[in-house]
Amino acid sequence: MPHFVSGVVRFQNEVYPEKRELFEKLSLGQSPEALFITCSDSRIETAMITQTEPGELFICRNAGNIVPPHSNQTGAMTASIEFAVAALKVPHIVICGHTECGAMKGAMNPEGLNNLPHVKEWLGFSKAAVDIVNELNADKSESERMRLLLEQNVFLQIQHLKTHPSVAVRLAKGDLQIHGWVYDIKSGGVSAYDEKSDTFVPVAERYAEEMAKLASQDACASG
């Protein structure tokens, strides 16, 4: 029996009974805190990384954590973004890239994707990020260029995200925040883009002020 099948049995017999109340509540509806857009890579486990429970994240995954620019052609990403932002009213959107990303390696070397025509076309949505890295960082090492590509791709997809009408409206109203992250598989570290320093910094550093406020609120509530 495949390992994931035995996992379903264990979930039904052990995990679900412990969280029955949560699942009964979720059966009545959802109100996620964030739309979380990340890669389909099997090594990315969003619930483990963010330590979230079911119902807390509305997750969209695809090769390269890509957001195509808005167009009149309906696609899965376009529809999911619209639903999360306009119907579920999520207050946050996270675009999370990751190290050792096969999609970004393919985007950097598209000639190796001739036998994967759909993948090659999909990764065309990352071409501007590749061009930036090639133009401005040609003297860097391959590993440095790949790290820069991961970050530039996150920036690019954020720009694409802003072309979606539902997102643009919420940003104009000021009740939606967009976050750019990169997850390091080997170290477990997550870095987030910090507008003040214009660079990626550890999540704990980027959100230190917000975390301090939350801790203070929790202390007041418990006191």
Descriptive notes:
The protein has helices at 3-18, 20-26, 46-50, 76-87, 102-108, 117-122, 127-136, 142-161, 165-173, 203-206, 208-222, and strands at residues 34-39, 57-62, 92-98, 177-183, 190-194, 199-202. Helix 4 packs parallel to helix 9 (165-173) and helix 7 packs across helix 8 (142-161). The protein has 2 domains: 1-30, no CATH class; 31-188, 3-Layer(aba) Sandwich (Beta-carbonic Anhydrase, Chain A). With 223 residues, it is an alpha/beta fold. The mean pLDDT is 95. It is built from 11 helices and 6 strands. The chain has a 6-stranded mixed beta sheet with strand order 2-1-3-4-5-6.
Show the helix and strand layout.
Blueprint: H1 3-18, H2 20-26, E1 34-39, H3 46-50, E2 57-62, H4 76-87, E3 92-98, H5 102-108, H6 117-122, H7 127-136, H8 142-161, H9 165-173, E4 177-183, E5 190-194, E6 199-202, H10 203-206, H11 208-222
Helix pairs in contact: 4-9, 7-8
Keywords summarizing the entry:
223 residues, 2 domains, 6 strands
Can you tell me the CATH topology of the largest domain? Beta-carbonic Anhydrase, Chain A
Distance between the termini: 51 Å
Q: Outline the low-pLDDT stretches.
A: none
Overall CATH architecture of the largest domain: 3-Layer(aba) Sandwich
- Give the CA-based shape: globular
* Fourth-tier CATH superfamily name of the largest domain: Carbonic anhydrase
Largest sheet: 6 strands, mixed
* Total beta-strand segments: 6
Order of helices and strands: HHEHEHEHHHHHEEEHH
Rg calc: 19 Å
User: Quick check: average pLDDT?
Assistant: 95
Number of helices, where a helix is a run of at least 4 consecutive DSSP H or I residues? 11
The computed structural class is alpha/beta
Q: Would you state the CATH class of the largest domain?
A: Alpha Beta
Strand order of the largest sheet: 2-1-3-4-5-6
